[in-house]
């Protein structure tokens, strides 16, 4: 199916194809896993299928609570139809618990609860290694306006509140996550909406009881059972029903 579409962009985890109508794209989820800015690579059979389904689930629910996003509909096991946006070159990270680079930067123990949710901005640029930036850089370099930053901050907090509750209900702690935003043009006016994906590739998810990691850190840190953990997340969210044979490698 995908062979007939025109490829627009191939990233590390996904491919964007021209959509059926102007202003739409098809987002194809690959099994490729990368970490440390592409230095570490592997194929994790079935990952794309699971992430496509989890991102669909999350984006659909975010639409229901009024958080506008690019998701239109899932087309197949690995493809979803999305609205094309002009990506704002920011990786927006929201943290509830200390982990990863924050633990390193401030010499804090992983797992320490933060007194409040913290939002960080990184400039989306692989060559520079996605450096951390402030709102000053964002406006000075015209990556986004102050109004857009306000919208991004408000939407990120809503996404965080929603995801925290959704995961807490199934015994998972949302430690942190990364999201991307883009501009949707309606004539002169550009509206900021949520884009890209929300999946165990872009979130830190810990089993609340055991503290077990159920996200991409299993790959980054060679903990094993990556697909099993992603599958566990999907199972707990109640979305494994239409994903037969993913772990066995039967999913195309
Ligand atoms: N709705 C959208 N419209 C246009 N581009 C999008 C949309 N949603 C996501 N993207 C972009 O599509 C690409 C998805 O591919 P992938 O996540 O594999 O990229 P990547 O390897 O992480 O590289 P990048 O540094 O470009 O994000 C990203 O560049 C992302 O910003
Ligand atoms: Mg990406």
What do these coordinates show?
With 252 residues, the protein is an alpha+beta fold. The protein folds into two domains: 94 residues, Phosphorylase Kinase, domain 1 (2-Layer Sandwich), CATH 3.30.200; 122 residues, D-amino Acid Aminotransferase, Chain A, domain 1, CATH 3.30.470. The protein is 27% helix and 33% strand. The protein contains six helices and 14 strands. Strands 8, 9, 10, 11, 12, 13 and 14 form a seven-stranded antiparallel β-sheet that branches. Strands 1-2-3-7-6 form a five-stranded antiparallel β-sheet. Strands 4-5 form a two-stranded antiparallel sheet. β1 and β2 form a beta hairpin. The longest helix is centred in the middle third of the chain and has 23 residues. The C terminus is likely disordered. Bound molecules: adenosine-5'-triphosphate and magnesium ion. Adenosine-5'-triphosphate binds next to β2, β7 and β12.
């Amino acid at each position: 199916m995908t062979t007939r579409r025109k490829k627009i962009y191939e990233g590390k985890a996904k491919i964007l194809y021209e959509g059926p109508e102007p202003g739409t794209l098809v987002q194809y989820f690959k099994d490729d896993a990368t970490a440390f800015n592409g230095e570490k690579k592997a194929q994790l059979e079935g990952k794309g299928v699971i992430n496509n389904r989890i991102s669909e689930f999350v984006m659909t629910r975010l639409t229901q609570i009024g958080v506008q996003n690019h998701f239109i509909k899932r087309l197949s096991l690995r493809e979803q139809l999305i609205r094309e946006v002009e990506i704002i070159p920011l990786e927006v990270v929201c943290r509830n618990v200390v982990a990863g680079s924050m633990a390193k930067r401030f010499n804090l123990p992983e797992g320490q609860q933060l007194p409040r949710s913290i939002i960080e901005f990184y400039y989306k640029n692989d060559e520079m290694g996605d450096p951390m930036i402030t709102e000053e850089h964002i406006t000075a370099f015209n990556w986004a306006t102050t109004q857009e930053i306000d919208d991004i901050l408000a939407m990120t907090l809503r996404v965080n509140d929603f995801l925290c509750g959704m995961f807490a209900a199934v015994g998972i702690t949302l430690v942190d996550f990364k999201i991307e935003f883009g501009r949707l043009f309606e004539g002169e006016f550009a509206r900021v909406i949520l884009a890209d994906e929300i999946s165990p590739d872009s979130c830190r998810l810990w089993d609340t009881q055991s503290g077990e990691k159920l996200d991409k850190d299993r790959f980054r840190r060679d903990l094993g059972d990556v697909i099993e953990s992603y599958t566990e997340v999907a199972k707990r969210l109640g979305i494994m029903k239409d994903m037969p044979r993913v772990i066995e490698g039967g999913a195309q």
